[in-house]
Design brief:
eight-stranded mixed sheet; 62% helix; 20 strands; alpha+beta; 25 helices
Length: 795
């Protein structure tokens, strides 16, 4: 019996290959977009884990120079002789690759790539030309080296490990150490650090010191857009399954009449869909791999630029994401088929054999009620919700509620459009259009969501762009930014700049806890650069003058939102030092808090901090001469000097690549929505023949019927686009004012871009017109005999 039932079910797909193609294409595209996003996320998180494991970040205490500079090699020797179990580390960059030098005989186990138990050559690592360990793609980025390159897949992306002596030679920093790793087991007899090296300071390991927590919001945004893309594709799947169920009603009635139990019929249909879902899911995972491989370099550049996180630019086939792709393909298929299975379970044995409409009028009431309820939930979460999950819950309720409200709103709009119609053809056109809405509702919902996502994300990105450019103009006001390696070089920079620059703005900073949150405290020199360029979200009178006098502090928006500190409240900037908040400023792109003090107050509170970075004002005509003087007189390398224009260009380049993935997802969702409309029109064409044949018999030509069908699709797409605009703007507001605040702690102003909306509307109408062209052309070529055949059978 099972074989006979499966053969009957398979026979339907052989007779209706287009519906099978629709079902598999929708599921494949949906799975591809989801699995592609998950592949990107999995690769990034694997890179974070590798980076954290490379030097045990967050696992060991470290010793660094108190002034933030380098440690002399003699200081390391002194500590070892005093009984300290420490291991030196030096770090730098060569051609963009992070080069780390380790001492393998003293480093904690698991940090050094030389595993003696695996037969590694420790002598080659330590002596002679030496060895360098990195991933294959990282070794390709390094210049021609005299040493042996060893492929080590477990090393963090864009990172190379070698012996510390070799690294010092390669970086040109002989006798210098950046930090010392403190081993967990220390001799009891060791002498106190302040006694033997007062210029050094020990920092305890910080849990979660890696970059993964900072990037969680980025990956959560990707996941949310992946789910949205999957939902758009799932509309196609739902429509195809529902149409197949309606068409197979006579067959299911006959099978049950022949003695097939209802449970067995449902089980075999579920097996059939599971096989289709596995095949489509496998194709989707393969397509998602290609999609992820194309976009991963842009994601890697984004994460490196925004968070300093090195992510591999090459994709690995990890079980986590391809299994999740197959799982969500199966789960999504059965969610889409749940309504059909429910209807089958309730279908009487002798039910009517004729296909029914995919949606009936009585559904409009509960659909409208559910839409209103979800929109109310979204509003409630926006007002009273707290946390990032509440923000995404609000987005989900908003989008689903908006999609469910589409059909009732279209019905109202079409009813109003029908009122002025007077000719029989016009009245029939509007009535027929209203009748087609239920059958096209899922495809139109997909178009609505895709259009809303495009409007929302384009508004967010463009608003971010305007704000970001203004922010760069505010923060990067100095013509040159220079970095010193140590105090001596910093003094040389100051000496040269005092003769050739208009102003020297030292960048003094230290990391501290502010109101229980990690933050940086900066010392700002009293200069017109800050007064003329900085904009405040909130500020009192004469804010910079009062900061210079040490009468208060400035805080960034992150601290303001996360701690509730406001103007006039006091903030602890040092032990037993409380200052009032004088101003709150925007600090876009910074994941942590920030406090600004006057330079004199900062130096008095933190006398051990020296400035190793400077902003130099020289004017456009003096910038080149100042750069040459810094290189020739202060010994600065070209990489230690960054001019304002190149820094802005680099920051804007990072920004442009930041939203490449979300933009690509939105374009793909719009394409999927157009495909949904195409498949819906094609699969509904056969059902519509009984409605079109009488109109054709009354005198309307096939060509005119085809043009009216094309016009109907464009009108429905236009109405959907009009309704998508407010939904997209609400989505943009939610992203900027709710999700962004919860994720990053700062809120972006929202701007409107009518020209962008017109362009997106044109693309949506073009997609709908292209989707409707083929069905309309097929209708214009329908043989008259087929139309006449409608009258031969009882409908």
């Amino acid at each position: 019996m099972n074989a006979a039932v499966l053969a009957a079910l398979a026979g339907y797909w052989r007779r209706n290959p287009l519906q099978l193609v629709t079902l598999m294409a929708g599921l494949t595209l949906a799975t591809a977009l989801w699995s592609g996003v998950q592949a990107i996320n999995a690769e990034a998180r694997s890179s974070y884990d590798a980076a954290a494991a490379t030097l045990g970040e967050g696992s060991y205490a470290e010793i660094t120079a108190r002034d933030g500079g380098v440690i002399a090699q003699e200081g390391y020797v002194t500590l070892r002789r005093a009984g300290w179990a420490v291991s030196p580390v030096i770090e730098g960059r060569i051609d963009g690759v992070r080069l780390i030098g380790l001492e393998p005989l003293t480093a904690p186990g698991g940090l050094v790539p030389v595993d003696l138990g695996a037969g590694a050559d420790l002598g080659a690592f330590l002596s002679g030309a030496g060895q360098i360990f990195a991933r294959a793609e990282t070794l390709d980025l390094l210049p021609s080296l005299d040493m042996q390159g060893v492929i080590a897949p477990d090393v963090a992306p864009n990172t190379a490990l070698t012996d510390i002596g070799i690294a010092q030679r390669m970086l040109g920093r002989s006798g210098q150490i950046d930090r010392l790793i403190v081993l967990p087991d220390q001799p009891i007899s060791r002498r106190p650090l302040p006694e033997i090296a007062p210029d050094l300071i020990e920092t305890t390991p910080q849990a979660g010191g890696d970059v993964a927590p900072l990037t969680d919001s980025f990956h959560l945004n990707l996941t949310a857009f992946g789910l949205l893309s999957f939902a758009v594709g799932l509309f196609i799947v739902h429509g195809a399954i529902g149409l197949a169920f309606e068409h197979r009603r006579p067959m299911m009635r006959n099978l049950r009449a022949l003695g097939v139990p209802l449970r067995r019929l449902i089980a075999l249909m579920a097996l059939e869909l599971a096989l289709i879902a596995l095949i489509a899911g496998a194709l989707g995972v393969a397509l998602g791999y290609v999609f992820a491989a194309i976009l991963l370099p842009d994601v890697a550049a984004t994460l490196r630029g925004l968070y300093g996180a090195d992510v591999s630019g090459q994709l690995s086939l990890r079980p986590a994401w391809w299994l999740s792709g197959l799982a969500i393909a199966l789960g999504g298929t059965f969610v889409a088929a749940s309504g059909a299975f429910w209807s089958l379970a309730r279908m009487p044995l002798l039910s009517g054999a004729q296909p029914r409409a995919l949606a009936v009028a009585r559904q409009s009431g509960w659909q409208a009620a559910l839409a209103v309820s979800l929109l109310a939930v979204s509003a409630a979460l926006a007002i009273w919700g707290d946390g990032l999950l509440a923000g995404f819950g609000m987005l989900g309720a908003l989008l689903i509620g908006g999609a469910l409200a589409l059909t009732p709103l279209l019905a109202i709009a079409l009813k109003l459009a029908e009122l002025p119609a007077r000719s029989p053809v016009a009245e029939w056109f509007w009535a027929d259009t209203r009748q087609q809405v239920p059958g096209l509702s899922l495809a139109l919902m997909a178009l609505l969501l895709a259009m809303a996502a495009n409007v929302g994300v384009s508004t967010m990105v463009s608003s971010f762009r305007l704000t970001f450019i203004a922010f760069l103009d505010q923060r990067l006001a100095s013509e040159l930014y220079v970095s010193a390696e140590d105090r001596a070089q910093a003094d040389a920079i100051t000496e040269v700049a005092s003769r050739r620059a208009e102003a020297i703005l030292p960048i003094l900073s230290t990391e501290r806890q502010i109101a229980g949150l990690p933050a940086e405290i900066f010392g700002a020199r009293d200069h017109a650069t800050y007064r003329d360029n900085w904009q405040f979200l909130r500020a009192g009178p004469e804010v910079w003058e009062r900061v210079a006098r040490g009468e208060g502090a400035l805080i960034n928006e992150q601290i303001f939102r996360r701690t509730g500190l406001d103007l006039g409240d006091t903030v602890a900037v040092a032990p037993d030092v409380m200052l009032p908040v004088l101003g709150i400023y925007g600090d876009y792109g910074n994941p942590i808090g920030q406090v600004i003090l006057g330079e004199d107050l900062f130096r008095s509170l933190y006398p051990d901090v020296i400035a190793l970075r400077f902003g130099l004002r020289a004017g456009p005509e003096g910038t080149a001469a100042l750069r040459r003087a810094l290189q020739s007189e202060a010994g600065l390398s070209g990489t230690a000097i960054i001019d304002q224009a190149s820094l802005k260009a680099m920051s804007l380049a990072v920004f442009e690549r930041t939203f490449t993935v979300t933009t690509a997802l939105n374009v793909l969702t719009l394409a999927v929505a157009g495909f949904a409309i195409l498949m819906s029109l094609l699969t509904l064409a056969a059902i519509r023949l009984p409605q079109l044949a009488p109109v054709w018999a009354l005198g309307l030509t096939r060509r005119r019927l085809a043009l009216l069908d094309l016009l109907r699709a464009i009108i429905l797409a236009a109405l959907t686009t009009i309704l998508a605009l407010p939904l997209g703007l609400m989505l943009a507001w939610a992203l900027l004012a709710v999700v962004n605040v919860e994720a990053f702690g700062w809120r972006l102003p929202m701007y409107l871009f009518p020209l962008d909306y017109l362009r997106l509307s044109f693309l949506a109408l073009l997609a709908a017109a292209l989707a409707a062209t083929w069905p309309a052309w097929r209708l214009s070529r329908t043989p008259p005999a087929r139309l006449l055949g409608v009258f031969q059978i009882e409908r």
